[in-house]
């Protein structure tokens, strides 16, 4: 029996995404008194409040700490929302001559967040310390200041959590839980124990995956439980605080009728010819089969609508041996007949998920396999397939609402999002 030490993290550090309405925290007793008096004076006399340097620093320090609770690297838009919330709660802080009334607070908060991250980095907080050592006046040999910055880019809530220093325990082979691959029968595997170990080793696992980016074959050996469907969804929840299959299918079933109507309306020549074949194939399916509608909307319709080539990712074949040789990132539908109507795998024996030429998971349903592949992208910190970037961004931003507030959508995807709203 191999023993090793592992740090526990019972719960991820952040438990929610950026709020729809930013709640301004309370400041020091002195500052709260000054602001209360200032708000009253503004209502009665129309006077704004002038703060001392200490009072302004207290406001910025507390605001930066509150912003950090949601994101270590907030976008300018998100900082603007926080600055706007500040002057709405305390109108006496609104700036005269400023177009929006909070431009100065926005700039101050941006600089304060940078200083706050530097303090946390020196203290060893992982999600900012990971970017320490960049080139500066005091570190001329470091990497470029903006090169390879590791930060959430797809709406991750817990990108790189810290180890809780006060809790250290011994676990039996916790890193890989390799006894999953032993000869024990399924009835002898304690799934509750597996979940507890996976929860406890979350910080360790994220550090390995984000820092080292190990190959898929190595991850299969070190973290086999991560490639179990239930644990994959739990991992996605730890990273984003979302129930992946529930939210995905709730949004997809809401938008599927609208997507199919949009596909029928699109009359451009190249799109219409290919889409007509997809819709004809869909009309031949059982209308009570929700899986057929989901597959028609996603498998062929969405890539065509976004003018993307799905042929290198969504594939079909007749046997498992051929499926395992289908490419770096792929969903391979194993079918009884290679003549798939309009290239849409409505009926499959099963669908295999292939990453880096390694078979990792499978599912009976094509739509469920898309969910699993999307979960793997987050859990294993992978990039979206280049030729289907818009397809995966649609799932991220439109279906799951995982928008980091930083990236502008491509015009085609933004137009589709507007059509569905």
Helix and strand arrangement:
Elements: E1 3-7, H1 29-45, H2 53-68, H3 76-89, H4 103-123, H5 126-129, E2 168-172, H6 191-200, H7 202-212, H8 216-222, H9 229-240, H10 244-265, H11 269-283, H12 290-305, E3 314-317, H13 320-323, E4 329-334, E5 350-355, E6 358-363, H14 366-379, H15 389-399, H16 411-420
Parallel strand pairs: 3-4
Antiparallel strand pairs: 1-2, 4-5, 5-6
Helix pairs in contact: 2-4, 3-4, 9-14, 10-12, 11-12
Concise account of the structure shown:
This protein is of the alpha+beta class and 421 residues long.
**What spatial form do the alpha-carbon principal axes imply?**
globular
Total domain units = 3
Instruction: State the major sheet.
Output: 4 strands, mixed
Which structural class is indicated by helix and strand composition?
A: alpha+beta
Question: What are the low-pLDDT stretches, counting only 5+ consecutive residues below 50?
Answer: 1-9, 166-179
Strand order of the largest sheet: 3-4-5-6
Order of helices and strands, N to C?
A: EHHHHHEHHHHHHHEHEEEHHH
Give a written overview of the molecule:
The chain is an alpha+beta fold and 421 residues long. The chain folds into 3 domains: 29-129, no CATH class; 161-240, no CATH class; 244-420, no CATH class. The protein contains 16 helices and 6 strands. The strands form 2 sheets. A 4-stranded mixed β-sheet has the order 3-4-5-6. The chain has a two-stranded antiparallel sheet with strand order 1-2. α9 (229-240) crosses α14 (366-379). The protein is globular. Mean pLDDT is 83; it is low at 1-9 and 166-179.
